[in-house]
Design a protein that fits this description.
The complex is a heterodimer of chains A (188) and B (410). Chain A has 188 residues and is α+β, with helices and mostly antiparallel strands. Helices cover 44% and strands 18% of the residues of chain A. The chains are: A alpha+beta (188), B alpha/beta (410).
Chain lengths: 188, 410
Amino acid sequence: MAKENRDQDNKAADAFRATDPAAAENSRLEDRVLRVLKDNAKISPDELALMMGTETTAIKEVIAQLEKQQIILGYGALIDWMKRDREAVTGLIEVRVTPQRDRGFDRIAQRIYNFPEVNSCYLMSGDYDLLVTVEGHSLRDVSHFVSEKIAVIDEVLSTRTHFILKKYKMEGHILKSPSDDEREVMVL
Amino acid sequence: MSSDKPTSPRLSDRVQSIPPSGIRRFFDLANEMKGEVISLSIGEPDFVTPWTVREAGMYSLESGRTHYTANQGMKELRQAVSDYAGRRFSLHYDPLKEIMITVGGSEAIDDAIRALVNPGEEVLVPEPAYVAYNACVKLAGACPRSIPLSAKYDFKLQPQQLEAAITAKTRLLIMAYPNNPTGAVMDRQDLEALLPVLQAHPDITVISDELYAELTYAPNTFTSPAVIPELKSRCVVIGGFSKAFAMTGWRLGYAMAPADVIAAMNKIHQYVIMSAPTLAQYAALEALRHSEELVRDMREEYDGRRRVLLRRLHDMGLPCFIPGGAFYAFPDISSTGLSSEAFCEQLLFDQKVAVVPGTAFGNCAEGYIRISYAASLENIETAMQRMADFVARHRTLINKEQVKKAHAGI
């Protein structure tokens, strides 16, 4: 019921935005704020306000709203663990499961994603059902986790584990030391 | 006149009539110090060309497209330029007869000047201006005539100034908005104000250098003079890919003008250049077709930096008119008691920050500096902190001297 209400609210908001220029402007501001935060979550509301030509309070409101709507889910550092810990590995695990009556995949997914070792968990179209990423300190760590915790769940029919050998790009960031500015110091 | 007399018999009078850049030494120094210097002096985007565009260039090489194109440029590309100019700027030109592809906007400027003036005739150059105009005019044997613009009018060309500068020998007016180095933009109203003067002098052609057209920061402020119906047949519009699509090193631009002018310019182009690089033309085709969103993102990013930069300048008490386009701010630094060049040189040595003296763009810009915000926000912030210290120190020096003078007066 609550979900239906929210859908209706969203639809009303979309319709409102289409006719009201102020709402459209606000929506544009939200998009711009998100684009900047995605690359630099550390930026202060003051600086954001300055960049967007608006007031700090307006920026704070926009961010609070985006957080409340769970469009912004959190602020974390993007870490290349493989650089920190040479043995660290990420496994991508394809999981095939039997969906449960009334609850579909959600309950099984929940059983899996609640493990802190699980970094992400997606329901997929195609040959398998859930794609689970697991981070661990070693290959053994991850395979152990899969065989001990995931494969043994009753509804899990099969698992297939792939290990990441090298990360080139992660969350839109290319994992290479930034190249120096090669431009001449002075160019008219 | 005698002081300008060429000194080397081997070299042509024309090339010797172009003075060597007075700040070259300073540039070399700045480049030597590279690494420790934060540079806000660069007139090119800090973004790398969007990948989709680079990839299209590589694909053209893989496919063996390594031959000359038509002199005037690939037909497909001219069509794409025509569509783009119509869509983005309401400029409508026939891709077959009224558009040509050049090696950067720079070549198009040179072609246009050479196609339109005779030796001894005059070309009006509103200053401060990009450094190439005067040189190209002189190399064509013509005489540049500076129109000094003022911060009082936001560095926009005023009709009475234009009228006063026109003589019987005037053939060309060079307009360049959004402007390098000031960041000034002339909107439709500003352009229409010039109309009566231009209509009273129907023999003058306007070269409109619109390299920065994609970079304006208020919605719909960019208007090409060629959009005004009375002016279209008298304009040569020059555009390019360098600034809008971060493609400086590809060296690709274009000119749009009435067919007779394009035909004349193309004559020069075909003997000097043959055709613009094929690789770059394929890349540009991709840029025009598929990167509007990337351009929007770059523009937004520049706009954010522009606002931060202006606030910092304001905070340190340096007057700066609000630049509506390009990626430059042009603050007045005369309150520090330093000349433009002294300011830039000392800022470079004391604080390791490189900016360009206004005088590089014309004598009327003494007392100004050009700051480029084609640099990361982080570098802009650090450079502005350093500059604030520098400015504050020089202000204290001035105050002390004033107090000393006042005491001496008593």
